[in-house]
Amino acid sequence: MKPLAPFAAQWSAISALLDEALNLPAPQREAWLAGLSGEQATHGEALRGLLARQAEIETDDFLEALPRLDPPSAAPGQGLGLGPGSEVGAYRLIEAIGQGGMGLVWLAERADGLMQRQVALKLPRVAWGDAFAERLAREREILASLAHPHIARLYDAGVDAHGRPFLAMEYVQGEAIDAYCCHHALPLRERVALLLQVMAAVAHAHARLVVHRDLKPNNILVTPEGQASLLDFGIAKLLDGELTQATALTEQSGRALTLDYASPEQIRGEPLGTASDIYSMAVVAYEVLADVRPYRLKRGSAAELEEVIAGAEVPLASSASTDPALRKQLRGDLDAILNHALKKSAAERYPTMEAFAQDLRRWLDGEPVLARPDRFAYRAAKFIGRHRLPVAAGAAVAVALVAGASVALWQAHEARLQAQRAQAEAATAQAVQGFLEGVFLASSADQTDPKKARDMTARELLDRGVDRIDVELTHAPLARERLLDVLASIYGNMVLTDKEIELRRKVLAQSRSLHGATSGEAVIAMAKLSHALTLNDKRPEALSLLKEAATVLDGRQEQGTRARFEVDVMQAAFERRSNPRQGLVYADRAIDYARSFGTNDDLANALQMKADSAHSLHDYALASEVYAELIRLCEAHPPLGAGGLAVMYESLGDAQTELGHYAEAERNIRKGIERDEKRGASEVTVHMGHAFLSIFLRRTGRPHESIDVITGALRWARSPAGESQQSLAHAIRVHHAMALLAFGRAKDALQESDDDVALKVDAKSVTALDFGLLAMRARALIQLGHLAEAHELLDHARSLRNDMVGKVPTASIDQAERAWLVANGQGAEALADAKAKRVAEKLAPEPGPDAPVSELVEWAGYELAAGHFERARSQADRALESIARGGQVNYQRDKEARATLIVGRALLGNGQVKDAVPVLERAVAMYSALFDPASPELAEAARILAQSRR
């Protein structure tokens, strides 16, 4: 007879109990066996025998494995032993890193060379047959449905040549959450922040109908970077009956593998839902926050633990903790939160894991929590219930009288508070409704002048609303605060930054008045005002506000809260242009907070800041990756991308342009415009998209198309509507002028920008776009031969640049200055300046063969102007080879034309006239196809060709 044959009929029950026993230290197993009761006690002898066999092998230190116990249907080869170096499928075992009653978890690596990655490989240590295979199959099914940054990912699953099933999962290097908190002496607020990461992961699973059923510290690892990861969905269950069939295994697993963290319903063997995970999570939270478990046992047996979990009241965490500092911090709201989540009845706990998490966030934010401490009447009733016999009749009457009086007073106080809160909320709601009705009634046909009312613009409605807030909402300060915040955001979305700043200042004043100068609301208002100021180039005041907000939070050692998130996001927005490396640091931290909150809109904001910072760092690969993630998030949650998805596509296209992925870039930019047009976006928004496409076309050698695309936006920029949004209209006109110059219409480019404010701008308000405009005008003047005027303009730009070093990009001015030197016959000086600038930026003195094509062509021009004909030809040839090799010729026609012209001129310079003529003919043909017939560059190319033919 095979060793497992006697247990075949009861194997599912014995297997689950064996899991439980093997999770205990060996000295505690006999007490655990003695504590079995009811039906479980009937398996005692079988379990004792199996544990004895296990002890024999442990004594021999044979891989700490159970003896070989083959089921009747074991497949050949399933009982093979495993050790370091053994291979299971495509994986090579390195060392055992975990164990349970039915299997081991090994650190393993790919053995087939396909990729370098270590994994946690879960597999049976002996052949447990269908039971283990079924458990692994269910875990694979569950993990495949989950995708969350705080859940260990599933990489692979299968059965190897020996019939052994396995799961390859993300290998998480970290400590159990309780050990991590102790070893790092984490403050209470940081412990709560860690718990929120885990709760976000569990909430994600619950949203996909998965109950974990074995939440405990050992299944929650924290990495050295402070990121929590939820492991082991081995006994998890899908709540959707159609997804997983009922089996003996799933039915038996209603009992927890680890009793200490089990819910009362698990102990009773009842059907489980998400409420059971909420209870287990509360036990984990209790232990992490108080440094003790909620149950204190006298005998230490499993039977006693079951009895306590099912019936005994959990002591308040503040009374259980032995740390005086922790006791003080736990007292009050945290006690109430944990107590609420640890109710014996599932119906009395938080309805969802997110509700549990939300109360912890309220505690972090200093807001009132929804959980309330148990009333005196409840505790008095429990006291009398526990001491019914010893309490004499007179004492019972006295207690009842005192309790009744206390309850009456307390309930009256609570009723007043609740009534005040309800009245405040009702007043706020009524005020908001009345305000909105009053504002939008202006556009109804009931007005004296219906046509005028219908024609009222969104801007006019907004302005009307703002005018009425101070008059109509003095009696409802909360409503005033909320509406000012909403209207400020709308003004910001309409690029009416002056009005946004005005309202943001009012929101901050209202928040300080209502909630306190250092309240979370005031800190958030500071952060939002700083962002509006940043966008309006009022950086000193923006920085001052951010420092003030950060000081408030640092003083409270506040991390992981809504206020801290807002400050970090706005700090990232502030730094993303001037100090993008620091901007990345703030953005990454904000992303971590957003993922722990589980809120998609916060995550979208933080990802936007990271992508923008990466773009400013010229890390276009990272920018493309983050923009793509942001787009996926918004596509999956349409409300997030309702107004901004088009810009995200356009930003992704811009980063892809820098990487030379021109076809993908154009596809994404056009997709953004199509999305705005389909959703009926405002005229302004659509024009912004066309301006973006115009820039792309100009940069990729299609200047005539660039002019055509921006024509509609230009008409708007010159209209009264454009005049009301000067910054956007200014940008459109500048990019139109740049397109004109790129097409060869230098005179028109100058005329378009003759009245531009950038010509008189001072260092206090200069922007990168202003420098671009000055550089463009200088180049136009150089092409037209007006070198003195160009020099004067460059002197103005140079004085501005000296005051703005490191604040805005000025490379366009550097290039314009070198163009002036070349036109003035100082090619050697231009080349020397280019080399000096590269060395100052810690680059090689000249670009290598893998440099961008535009850089190679520019450099070839300097070498040509310096009289280095062979070096010029070599650089130009490299550029042409790169264009041909990259398969992006259609997007680099202008660079191809200029490189070809340089090759022809270099040949002429070396006296190779016969070879130069056909090359120059090709160059002139390319110029004719690309540029305006009156282009100065085309005229110069034709002149050189004519000269070579003489």
Topology:
Layout lengths: L10 H12 L6 H6 L9 H16 L27 E2 L2 E9 L4 E7 L7 E6 L6 H15 L9 E6 L5 E6 L4 E2 H7 L4 H20 L2 E2 L8 E3 L5 E3 L6 E2 L9 H5 L11 H4 L6 H17 L11 H10 L5 H4 L3 H7 L2 H9 L11 H12 L11 H11 L6 H48 L9 H5 L3 H15 L4 H17 L3 H19 L4 H16 L3 H17 L6 H17 L1 H18 L2 H17 L3 H17 L8 H15 L2 H17 L4 H17 L3 H16 L1 H4 L2 H18 L2 H7 L15 H16 L3 H17 L7 H13 L3 H14 L12 H13 L3 H18 L6 H17 L3 H18 L5 H13 L2
Antiparallel strand pairs: 1-2, 2-3, 3-4, 4-6, 5-6, 7-9, 8-11, 9-10
Can you give a write-up of this model?
The protein has 950 residues and is mainly α. Among the domains are: 55 residues; 212 residues, Transferase(Phosphotransferase) domain 1 (Transferase(Phosphotransferase), domain 1, Orthogonal Bundle), CATH 1.10.510.10; 118 residues, Alpha Horseshoe (Serine Threonine Protein Phosphatase 5, Tetratricopeptide repeat). The protein contains 42 helices and eleven strands. The chain has a six-stranded antiparallel β-sheet with strand order 1-2-3-4-6-5, with helices on one face. Strands 7-9-10 form a three-stranded antiparallel β-sheet. A hairpin with a 5-residue loop joins strand 5 and strand 6. Helix 16 crosses helix 18 and helix 26 runs antiparallel to helix 27. The protein starts with 10 loop residues before the first helix and ends with a helix. The N terminus is likely disordered.
